[in-house]
Design brief:
294 residues, alpha/beta, D-Maltodextrin-Binding Protein, domain 2, five-stranded mixed sheet, 12 helices, 12 strands
Length: 294
């Protein structure tokens, strides 16, 4: 009933009887970041309960893969774990795709290890750079600290189309896209979770929500003496791996009733859903500002 009330307010109609959203038809096409996916999917699930005839299709091809489609006008919304790049914005301009950037949550990229790993629970940014930099010579744990085991590290991380990959490589290695190539890559964060959980010598990184959902089988590494938590990410003290995450909305798509109703619904319930799926909500005024931006 609460969601019906919210939706009716969005559609500026009375809540007597069936919400107007129940009469909507059409399709909302979404792709992009696996990090933002849990938020968008949870909101889409709520939306389906009041607008069952609207098909909300959500792909997960990574932030970069999503922007390729978004800038070509092939999708309505891109889930993005980083800001749009100049080349992507230029492609959108060439294709006459105008858009609005909407921050939806805060995230803290989380470096994880296997729970049986008792030695690497606290690391520095410099040590992470030593592992993940393009010219890294690190093969064994003992290459980082001599006292650590002389066993091979098994690395897991997002693919090169991922905004998480871009952000991590810039924050840790100093340049977006600068990273060693010899690690197990996947745009599916659940693959990374299983990889680290299944190998005592594994290390990986992904969004905080995936760690929080799987913290019984993973250990979060403390970075520069600060552990990733809802509080440290929200206060900005978990550095340098805290960041905002976004959705990008095609303005022409927003003119369609089904896309408009979905985006409005998204921003009105985002704060509640964001926290439920394990991310950190934005201040109320930022969601209101997003609604006004159209």
């Amino acid at each position: 009933m609460k969601l019906n009330i919210i939706f009716c307010l969005l559609m500026t109609i009375s809540c007597i009887g069936q919400p107007k959203g129940g009469k909507l038809k059409g399709k909302v096409r979404i792709d992009g970041s696996s990090t933002v996916y849990p938020i968008t999917e949870a909101i889409a699930e709520e939306y389906r309960s009041i607008a069952a005839k609207v098909k909300v299709n959500i792909g997960v091809s990574g932030t970069g893969g999503g922007f390729k489609k978004f800038s070509a006008g092939e999708i309505d919304i891109n889930n993005a774990s980083r800001k749009i790049k100049d080349k992507e914005a230029n492609l959108a301009l060439e294709n006459k795709v105008s858009y609005v950037e909407l921050p939806v949550a805060y995230d803290g990229l989380t470096v994880v290890i296997n729970p049986k790993n008792t030695w690497a629970t606290n690391m520095t940014s410099a040590e992470l750079k030593k592992i993940w930099d393009k010219d890294s010579k690190v093969k064994n744990w003992s290459d980082i600290r001599e006292a650590w085991p002389k066993r091979a590290i098994k690395l897991y991380g997002p693919g090169t189309d991922s905004g998480t990959f871009d952000y991590f490589s810039k924050a840790i290695n100093g340049e977006s896209g600068r990273s060693r190539a010899n690690y197990t890559k996947s745009e599916d964060d659940n693959v990374l979770v299983k990889g680290v959980a299944g190998n005592v010598d594994a290390m990986g990184y992904f969004g905080f929500a995936y760690y929080k959902e799987n913290q019984e089988t993973l250990t979060a590494v403390t970075i520069n003496g600060v552990a990733p938590t809802m509080d440290t990410i929200n206060k900005g003290v978990y550095k340098p791996l805290s960041r905002p995450i976004y959705i990008y909305v095609n303005k022409n798509s927003y003119k369609r009733a089904e896309v408009k109703s979905f985006v409005d619904f998204y921003l009105n319930i985002a704060k509640k859903i964001v926290e439920e799926v394990g991310y950190i909500p934005l201040p109320d005024e930022m969601y209101k500002k997003g609604l006004k931006s159209f």
